[in-house]
Amino acid sequence: MENKYLLHGKLTAKPGQQKELADILIQASQLVSTAKGCTLYAVSHDQEDENAVYVTEIWDSKDDHDNSLKVEGVRELIMKAMPILDGAPTKGQELEILGGVGI
Amino acid sequence: MENKYLLHGKLTAKPGQQKELADILIQASQLVSTAKGCTLYAVSHDQEDENAVYVTEIWDSKDDHDNSLKVEGVRELIMKAMPILDGAPTKGQELEILGGVGI
User: Is the separation of the CB atoms in A59 and A38 below 8 Å?
Assistant: First the structure.
């Protein structure tokens, strides 16, 4: 079996729009929650950075992740998030899970 | 309710010892899997970095994480990992979960 895929990325909101960005990402998590291969989609923040929002996803495969971007409504949420981002999103860390628990 | 705690950290093994380090961390995940508040303990690697091992943990609280270090056998595993690390471990990212799925 293919190892699971972990994506850990940071998005930076324009000043004052962190909560709005986090809310959009939480809506996205709900849309993809029933997509094939979705194990985790966590939206978090760093208490020492008032503009950053982190997304940590675990999928059965990278393909499952990529397909989730086509789930109905996800594209609309991405379009809604783009104008409140402070610059282009940086590429997330793409990792391959070797083992552990709760996966 | 307190928001959950996410810890994402990178450990670097001495050359050739990545698999051994990952195996030790997977053993640690098994020891803490039944500890209070453990939601996720994923051990992963970056296909482009042959020495790094990543640990991504989700706990009900930071206290639950801190207490997991006292689980029987964990200290022994940490002692076993220390000599194969390439330098001191860097501090992981400590994040607070705002929402999402699979948590």
Answer: yes
